[in-house]
Amino acid sequence: EIHIKEPIEKEVNPHLLPGELLLCEASTVYKYIQEDGSNRGTYGKLVCTNFKIAFLDDDSSSDDNEPQFKNKIVGENDITLQCVDQIYGVYDEKKKLLTGQLRKYPEKLIIYCKDLRVFHFCLRYTKEEEVKRIVSGIVHHSQTPKLLKRLFLFSYASAAPNNTDGRNQTVMFDTLEDWRDELERTKGNVKYKAVTTNEGYRVSEKLPLYFVVPICVSEESILKYEGRGIPIWCWSCHNGAALLKMSAFPKEQDDSTSQMQKAFLDGIYKTISKPPYELLKTDDLSSSLPSLQDIQTAYTRFKQLFLIDNSTDFWATDVKWFSLLESTNWLEIIRRVLKKAIEVAECLERQHTNVLLIEESATDLCCVISSLVQVMMDSYSRTKSGFQSLIQKEWVIGGHGFLDRCNHLHKSDKEEAPVFLLLLNCVWQLVQQYPPAFEFTETYLTVLSDSLYVPIFSTFFFNSQHQKDTNMSGESLKTQSGPFRFLTVWDWSVQFDPKAQAFLNNPLYAEKPKPDKSQRKTARFKHQRQFSLPLTQTKPSTKRGFFREETDHLIKNILGKTIGKFINSSDEPPNSFREFYDSWHSKPVDYHGLLLPRIDGPEIKVWAQRYLRWIPEAQLHGGGTIATAAKILDLMEEVQSLQVKMDEEHSQAISRDVHSVPMLRNSARLSSLFPFALLQRQSIKPALPTSTWKDLEDEDDLVKRDDEFVDLSGDMS
């Protein structure tokens, strides 16, 4: 039964950006609200432009009750074409994946998004001609291969007035001066030099215009193999040890070529093993970390757990949630990547050894590990501008293939892999373990992950600096020829007003180290270890998952507390690593010094804000970290206002703004996934115990376990 709401009579038109064109539209489309088994929803117009798919209802034009955290570019019911993951049509209650030309048009459209939103549109009441136009339009514009110049990025850049200075203290690393400044900041300029050898891209189109190499490396060496086999500098530690990366030679070569390349490499290694350089340790990431294909497979499985169609689906997966999560292998990949970063940090920090990361192109896992090591070892990378500069240096200028890895052009699924998302997941682990060490919040990381799919910024839409530079020239709509002026994602004012931007900054960031205040008791670490999973498996793991007795009474709402993975005995870190790891964790944390993530057992958690923000069932009302944060912010506000009063009483009236973050005063009404889920509706939970309820569904395979009633309102808060 459909709860019919009168179709809207007044005309609602989409808000179009400069360069955005309306391609097709359909009226009387019914959008379901997927909160429970009912078919409640709202009527409106579904439109497709060269930038987005948007649903417009009669509330779209009103500015009342606007959320505090509103994106100015992408609205609540907007899906950018790059954000569309898969589109399904429903024919006679059966779901079918829609691609290419359609012979028959569905009565219902389901759009799964890369930011994990799920949209359900009923087309039963829409005119047949409009259904054909809108469905084929959406499928064509979001799923078929594109040419680079057909991206909305270029339409927007040629039509939009570019008055913003997006640098925002972020170092872009597109000039020689930026590299020299970074060498000076890290005191690496004694042993390393910024080179101009690649000006005009005469060495390689994959390398940036400017980069840094050891002083002893000659220009001839760089030119010899198009930059392959050359150690490129990433960062220098305070003790002089440096992190380097190298693009490996192809493995399948004839013998003579292979011998020449080996001799060349031996010469390079000898040169950089002599004083003033420290010892050198090489690490081939292609053999020591999962392959890109493994990462893609794991993430594809993992994201399916969060693309929930309705409440029934949620509770169905809840019955075997932990075993489903384990089977994806995504959290294990995060753990292995963090472990590798700790190993590299140990070499640099304790052994004073240079580390050379090797990978085929040095633009995927090299970017992940080098960025993580810098976040862990350099407190500047934990500030907002420092982290943004790091992404520019290692990823954007470093040549990570965003276009291919995000599959923005739908050219090849084989190239797709969520490498940048893997980094953000790893950084999130550190942010949630050591919040005072970071100037930015998890909300910042979440909107940064969303920005991967917003094609008005050039930051994440090219494979290399060369590709961007060669596509900069174009015709402006104002009939004057000139280079495109692309926006950078680091200018947050394009997406958020100042009030919303406040959610990206951490009010509890420890600007100066306060060792006395931040001391942790050693006992706390030991206490947590008691809750860890065993380090060796005493018996074979069963299909029923590894969280059996301890977690039967928990559900996904608190999955962060209990999700982890066995560390198999074969995977046990070497003694020196373990000693370094345990020794660091037994001391008080210096929020401006080295930070090592906790990686044992259930310390690796699911990034709940990103993955669960659209699922009402997974929200704690008045609970979660946001409730704590709201109280702390209230206290800070009170302390600051008292300070102002004291100053005035002592006749030292200083006009100062009381720093406040726009929080809702009543934290009891906030969702635990605030600010994305503001005051979300309560979900309706099945009244029966989960096992009984599932038995009724004839799903015996899910319930061959002693499953008890799962209580949402118990001890979770």
From TrEMBL:
The lineage of its organism: Eukaryota, Metazoa, Chordata, Craniata, Vertebrata. One of its GO terms (cellular component) is membrane. It comes from Chunga burmeisteri (Black-legged seriema). Belongs to the protein-tyrosine phosphatase family. Non-receptor class myotubularin subfamily. The keyword Cytoplasm applies. Keywords: Cytoplasm, Sarcoplasmic reticulum. It is found in: Cytoplasm, Myofibril, Sarcomere; Sarcoplasmic reticulum. Residues 173-611 form the Myotubularin phosphatase domain. GO terms for biological process: phosphatidylinositol dephosphorylation. This is Myotubularin-related protein 12. Its main location: cytoplasm. InterPro entries: MTMR12-like_C (IPR022587), MTMR12_PTP (IPR030576), Myotubularin (IPR030564), Myotubularin-like_Pase_dom (IPR010569), PH-like_dom_sf (IPR011993), Prot-tyrosine_phosphatase-like (IPR029021). The keyword Transmembrane does not apply.
